[in-house]
Structures are given as structure tokens and as C-alpha cells.
Amino acid sequence: xxxxxxxxxxxxxxxxxxxxxxxxxxxxxxxxxxxxxxxxxxxxxxxxxxxxxxxxxxxxxxxxxxxxxxxxxxxxxxxxxxxxxxxxxxxxxxxxxxxxxxxxxxxxxxxxxxxxxxxxxxxxxxxxxxxxxxxxxxxxxxxxxxxxxxxxxxxxxxxxxxxxxxxxxxxxxxxxxxxxxxxxxxxxxxxxxxxxxxxxxxxxxxxxxxxxxxxxxxxxxxxxxxxxxxxxxxxxxxxxxxxxxxxxxxxxxxxxxxxxxxxxx
Length: 265
What we know:
The protein is an alpha/beta fold. The protein contains eleven helices and four strands; from the N terminus they run αααβααααβααβαβα.
């Protein structure tokens, strides 16, 4: 089902939306259009990331399977990296360096937020000392991880799959990155959309034992607490992972540690 009211590039991006999300996603777009009729046409007339129809790629997970909603700031500012799924850098394949004394791969190290997220996971798993997260310590872990039968995942797609299996909806406060627009401005425009997404989640899960957990990374994501009804959802708030302090965030370690995301399923 596609609405003729949305620009073609937006309609085409709906192809990646799971049917259980379609009504909610379209309601969100309609709310954006009602608040600012010029926004979506303006978006379509310019350049934005993610490209290649991946704008709504995060909504491939069925609504019923969502247990956590991880909200970042916005897409990576590089075309190959921006996948429509927060923090999953499309330029990254291997997690571990193949160099004899290497730690994380060069492409992971380039994606600062992803790098710090992986370091935090290693600390949470007890594999890395929070006081020593440098090259030598990571090299030892990398060497062990690459050994046959290590039991550790090897690639970013595996990490994304592990997150999906745990029911993570991986979103950004702004679904787009534009070089000429501040992320906070685009995030404000997407607020009505995110309101509709939370409404959809609430309608799906209100009869269950608990509502999905909101995990808000960074000050822009934290603005979701202003959305009507967001207080109904349990939530955790942390600094954005591009901050080194994220590695030592004990709330994040306590939340992600039991999931053992770096271990093979």
C-alpha cells in the first residue's frame, strides 16, 4: 500500500517496510506532512542519506518482535555507511583487524560510535578492562576472536543479526542526514513521525507484560522524551557513543552485558 500524497522517492523507500509497520509509517509521514507540507517535497528535491531506497530499512523487523528501540542521532554522513539502520555502518564488514598486532578493523575504527559501542560490549563481557581499552589490549582480543572455534562473531552483519534476534528496532532521531542541514533541525521535523511509531508500538504491545524499552543515545535522541506518551515506555538514556565516556557507562554495560552480543548465537 502506497500513498500518492508522498513524493516518489519516499514511496519507493516504503518497499523495505514490513507490512506490520506500513500503517504506522504512513501515519507518521502524513503527520509530518500535516505539520510542514514543504518538508518531504524539499527532502525529495535535494540530496540526503541514506540513499538507494534505504530510508525505512530499520522497519524490516515485525512490530510484534520489537523488544527494544535503540535511538541514535542520525545516519552516518557517508553514502556507503548510511544504511537506514542506526550504528550499522554499511562500509564495515570484518570487526577484527587481520594485522598481526591489530585490534578492531580499520573500518570499525573509522566509525567512532560503532568502535566505542564494541569496546563497551567487550568491557560488559569482561573481555576488556575499562581502564585499558587501547591497541595492545584489543590486539589480544582480536587474535583470540579470529581463532577457529572462538565463539565470537566476526562481522558487523552478524552483530546486526544478533541485535535483531533480541528484538532491537534500530532507529535514528532523524532518519536523514543532509550536509547543509543541522541534524537537530532534521530531527525536529521527524518528531511527528516518531510519535506515530511509538503509537504503533503501544497499540501492539499494550496488552503484553511490558512495553518495549527505549534506549536513547545522545541529546538529540533524548528529545524523544518530549513526545506525548513516551513516558509510558521504560527508557534508558546515555551519552552518544562518539564520546569516549560511553565505553565506561555502567548503565549501558548492565543493559547490554547479559545479551552477549559479540558471542555467536
